[in-house]
Each structure stands twice: as C-alpha cells, then as structure tokens.
Amino acid sequence: MNDSASAQKILASRRRLIDQASRTTRYKAEEEGGCGVTGFASSIPVAGKHIFEPSVQMHNRGNGKGGGIAAAGLCADDLGVSREILDDDYLLQIAFLDPAAREQVERECVLPFFKIDSSGKIPAVDDYRDIEGLETRPPDVWRYFVRVQENVLKDFIARSGLQAMAQRKAEDEFVYQNSYRLNQQFYASLGEKKAFVLSHGRDMLVLKIVGYAEKVAQYYQLENFKAHIWIAHQRYPTKGRVWHPGGAHPFIGMHEALVHNGDFANYHSVSEYLRQRNIVPQFLTDTEVSVLLFDLWNRVYEYPLEYIIEALAPTGEMDFDCLPLEKQKIYRAIQASHIHGSPDGPWFFIIARHDPYTRRYQLIGITDTSMLRPQVFALQEADGVQIGLVCSEKQAIDATLHSLSQEDKRFSPIADKYWNARGGSHTDGGSFLFEFTKDSSASAAADFTCTDKFGKVISTPKDKLPADRTIELFSTPAANAVSEMEKALEEKTAWQLFQFIRDNLARWDFNTLSWYCRKIAAYGAAGNDCRKKAIEALTLLIDFRYDTGAKKRSSVLEILHRSLYELFAGAPKITARTTERFVWIDWQTRAKLRSPKKTETTLIIYAREFPPEGDECDARLICAAFELGWKRFMVYGLRGQRFQGCGLGPDTDGVRIDVYDSSGDYLASGIDGLEIFVHGNAQDQLGQILKAGKLVIFSTAQRAGTCMSWETPRAARSSMRWAVRGS
Known about the structure:
Blueprint: H1 4-13, H2 15-18, E1 36-47, H3 49-57, E2 67-74, H4 76-79, H5 83-88, E3 90-96, H6 102-110, E4 114-121, E5 140-148, H7 150-160, H8 167-188, E6 195-199, E7 204-209, H9 213-219, E8 226-234, E9 251-252, E10 256-262, H10 267-275, H11 286-300, H12 305-312, H13 317-322, H14 325-338, E11 347-355, E12 360-367, E13 376-382, E14 385-391, H15 394-407, E15 417-419, E16 431-439, E17 444-452, E18 457-458, H16 479-491, H17 494-504, H18 510-524, H19 529-543, H20 553-569, E19 582-585, E20 602-606, H21 618-627, E21 632-639, E22 656-662, E23 672-679, E24 692-697, E25 706-712, E26 721-726
Parallel strand pairs: 19-20, 20-21, 21-22, 22-23, 23-24
Antiparallel strand pairs: 1-8, 1-14, 2-7, 2-8, 3-5, 3-6, 4-5, 9-10, 10-11, 11-12, 12-16, 13-14, 13-15, 16-17, 17-18, 24-25, 25-26
Helix pairs in contact: 3-9, 3-15, 10-11, 11-12, 12-14, 17-19, 18-19, 18-20, 19-20
C-alpha cells in the first residue's frame, strides 16, 4: 500500500483542481433504480455483438434514456495501432457534444501535455436516424493514444511533491487530473455541455449515449470489434443529469469502468467523504461516486482488492463474528476509517478492470451487504476456452451464451455453473471476480481463474468433459442397445423410462445419449399418451440430479432440451384440425387463440418472440387462454419474460403451468390456487403475495439432488410451507 505521506501528497495535489469548483449541486433525486447490468470476461477475445443480445433482452430494465458499454483487453488490429502502443499508451476518448469545440479542447487540454502516437474520430454510422429507436444523436468521439510529455510530467511531479512515487504511477495521476480539468472546463462548469472524457485508461474504452446500450454498438460499429471483457448498462442513473450522455453508465476511475444497478441513500454523505479528500464529482450521479471511491482506495491508498470490497460493502453482524480474529481486526480498522464513505442502500456493481502493472484483467461483481439487488454469476470452462459472466438476471447470461454458441461451437448455450453472491458473507464476501493475464503475442488469455473476495477458487469439475458441438451426435448404437431402448419406450412409464436412462447414463457416451433422446422425441411424435410420456421423461431428466459419468451436465442438458423442444414443436398447431390433447401456439399464431376442443387439454406456448411484459406478453396470452377454458399450460423458449401465472384471478384450482428456460421476474406472484412448476432457475421477485396454490422450482443452482417447493392449501391461506425434496 502507499505510505500515508504519499497518499496525502496525491490528494493534496488535487486541491487546486477544486479551488474554482462550486460545491456539489443538489439535484432532485430521480426515481429508484431498476437498471439492467451485464458483463462477461472471456479467455479469447469476442466481438461486441455478443453484448448486444443480453442488452436487448433487458429493455424492460431500461427506458432508452441512457445506455453504455465498456470493453477491456482490446485487439490492437481493431484499433489500427501496434501491440506496443496499445500496451503502453493511455487510450483517451473524448466525447464532443459540440463538434466545433474539438479544436479548442485539443489546443488547451491535449496538445500541450501529451505526445500523441495515434488519433482519429472513431467510426460511426452516417445518420443516427438509420438506427431504429435511436432518437438523440450520439456525440462524436475522438480517440487518442497518448503519453505525457517528459517535461510536463517532470514539472507535475516536482509541483506535487511526488518524487517518491514510481514515475508511471505519477503519470497515471497526471492523466486523471487532466481529464478532471477538461471535464470541469467543457462540461461541469457550463450550462451548455461541449465535451467530456469518456475514458482514459490503458487497454480499455467506454462509450455511452442517450438510448439503449445495444445502440452504442450499432452506432459506433462495434459489432465485430473484439475484446476479452465487455460490460453494459441499461437505464439512466438515479441521480444527476439523467437526460444527458455524460450521465449514462459506465463511469471511469483510472483503469476501471463501473456500472451499477440500484440507488444510494447516502449519496451526499459519500460525496462529502470524497470532498474531504479533494475529490469532487462532476456528473453528480451515485455511479460516479462509486468508481471514485474504488479509484481512491485502489490507486491512492493502494489497498488490496479484498480491502476495497470490504470498504464498499462492510461485513456486519453474524458474518463479522464468523471471521477469523485477525481478519476481524483488519476489517474493524477499515470500517472505522471508511464506513461514512460506504454506499448505503440497494446496489450491485459490475467492474471491468485492467491492472497494467501486473497485466491482469478482471471482471468483478460486488453486491450490497443486504443483497437488495438481483445478481447472478456463471462460469463455463470447455474446449480450451473459459468465460465468466455476471448479470442482473440469468436470462441475460443465457442470451450471451446462446449468442456466442451460434458463432463459436466451443461455447455452450448452458453454463457449467450458476450461482448468487451472498452480500457481505464470511464465506464469499458477496463478491466474485474473473481474472486472467492476456498473452501479448496471441491476443489470448492465460491463467483464467474465478475467485471470491477471499481468494477461494471457484471452478467446474475437471473430470467432466463437454460434448463436441462441432459434430452430429446421432449415429445408431449397438443392436442390443437399440432393442433395449425400444422395449423401454413401449413397456415403461415415464418415471420408469427416466430411471432407465438415469441408471445407464454414466456409462454412455454423448452419441448414445443423443440417439436415445432423439428416439424418445420420435416416439412422442405418435401423439397423445406417447407425447405425454416422452415429455414427462425428458422433463424428469432435466429436473433431477444424477451421475453423468465423464460427461458435463451442461452438455447433457443441452441434448435433453434439444429433444424436448423437438417434441413441443411437433405438437399440432393451434390452426390445425386435430384429435390430440396437445396444441402449440407461438407469437405468429397468437391471434388464432381459441377455446379447447373436446380432446384438447394442454396449450404449449413457444414464448421466444413474445415481449417481456405488457398487453402482448405470453403471460397475458395465458390469461386469455384461461378465460377461454384452457387449464394446462407448458411455456418454453422463455428469455426473461415476466409474470407467468399472474393475472388469472381467484379460484384457479386445477390450473397448472410448466415453465421451461429463462423465466423472468414476478413469476407466481399473487397466485390463488393454481400450480406452477419451474424446470430450471427462477428469478428475483418470485412468488410475491402468494395466496394459495403450489410453486415448485427445480433449480440448477440448488445443491445437487434437490428441488424447492412451496405450497399453501386453500384451507390455510395464511400459512406458508417450504420444503426441500430429494431428487
């Protein structure tokens, strides 16, 4: 850590920056945050289009008034510079809200201080109105690869008394202070905003607009621009100039960019804490002060990351008592020094960070100690590539992996591991980070690891192998296996068929499993009892835990889902004449919804193209179908759609909804008698105001061999019973 004298000299050198600045303006607080945040770190560089899909799916967490992205671990070729320049230079990006101001900005804030190795306006579409939904013209952005001029840096070190500091770290501080002066002159001090610094760190960039996050990638033509780390944010900040691109996330410290979901109750207290250290926010948002805190504790005080996280999210109560005594002593000192600067309220941070001194890159997720904002982490390790993901919702993780898997078969659409952080806990600290070192010769990452706050490694089983997704896995197994399977299909119940596959799966290879699943789907195509048995058997295989042998469970699940969706899609369409009990409907045929005919019992809804909420969402289709007489529903292809089971009204005994894939918020909220079975993970705000009925969740994030069930009989509406059922 920096010694006290060095830290004080850094902070003292900033005093002249704020001598002419007014005290923090107090704007009216905006409405509570409900932002969508997403990010991933990959061991190989991947294109910006893969941050596009999860951003689109979180529109209902945004409003089109603010969106942004950050990328770290960039590719020199995409930037038109050498690897040496990308490694050594500061990547200074300036947003020009008034293009005519560029000459003055360069003359007064760039050219006198920096040696410029490369510069230019970053590419953008010719007319922003060509991008559907983009209503405000994004700023022109100029990119400069710079180093501080030797004489300028020497003078700065002497004036600031920083002779004891490593020269490169003093150069960091000059860049930081120069960006502050630029923002103060051309943004913060003006009624009319002209320009501001988007980012100035090494090997990372930030772009943001008034609009949705994915429009950033479209407007600035980043679909094929590659990086190891991407983060994105939907929605404006909860405080500050919410209508302005300068107020959108991400915000920067030095070599890190931060997005956040939530709202601080003590924003002004944190601002005063920073002001006491000669740090004054310029964009007046709670997100900005978050990253200023991180930069203060990281670069000025040089705390280890564990201590920075503790200062942001202090461990409390029972968790504190469970810590080792030595750690309690350290944490008590951290809290005594910084508790008045710790963000208070509901929040969740995602941080993209580059440490140029160790060449380490990090994607960090930190949740508040009360865990008041949703967050999901995931890890996938396969075929020589690794990826770590962190998002507001699991559906955004699934969207990212689906997008990647469509382009690169080394990625699977299902993660190997999903989990949540427990805020401020003594076990994981409420934080996880994905970290790697980039190989400068090959633009690939080495030593990719995932750890919690305390450095404990999170990994996937090393003795499990993924399926090779580049080849077809449907060749016919040996004759005796074929005969055995055909006999099982004809003679066994769905439960017995499940048991048969479960008991043999460990010794099968992926090809044999794929053949069996395809055989089950073909059997189910015969209709009625066959389809019912096949759906039930495949669903049991998805829900329950069992020995998969040397095969990764994520690959097994992908094969099972593929066959189950084939079964669903093969059901008669709502427009067809049929005597089957299953009927299929999707977005294109939703207007053909009708009452069930005599033999029809189950409506299968393919929900992929339905909006996440509103009058046209799949949840409203269920309500309309219920009013027409349908009582049995299977909903699949979900990608974050909300409100399944809501709005059906009272006395819904006998109604059952089976939910597959990535369900969204508010599922089963307000149910009164009906049953909902979730064949996978559920999201936050689950089952609010339950009155009567049953909710069962077969969660892949639960411990092996369990599902979670809640049931309230109508005779005991005021009571709640939770149960963990062995699987």
